[in-house]
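example protein:
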Amino acid sequence: MSSPSPLTPLLSPQVTSAALSGSPLLWRTGALFIATGMMTGAFGTHGLRSKPGVTQDTVSAFMSASQYAVLNGLGLCLISLHPRFAAHRFAGPAIAAGGFIFSSSIMALVLNKERFKSFGPVTPLGGILMIAGYISLAF
């Protein structure tokens, strides 16, 4: 078998175009999750600590929520590039919706627990939906 020349692509044009034509909606959603996670993480590190009544536990919960947003954003970006998973009808929407519900409900509870106390039971539902989205990629 001969070795490929420098001009021979490693992937055929069909494979390359299929991989790059993934889901623009999942890519954009993932990018927004990453940006939001980074911004909320910066706020949690610098702005939240000076708020009265904030404990180390609440800062830790807020930071976990922002880290989950970044990780789910990266997951959505990777899924959007996969030729088969980008078209998965359940995984991407479940990860996006679950990640949004999970992270935003934690952040809302940290920022104003009395006002958003009804969000407490919603947080695990977002986590379950998010996990179900990732598990669905295995099937």
Remarks:
- DSSP finds five helices and no strands in the chain.
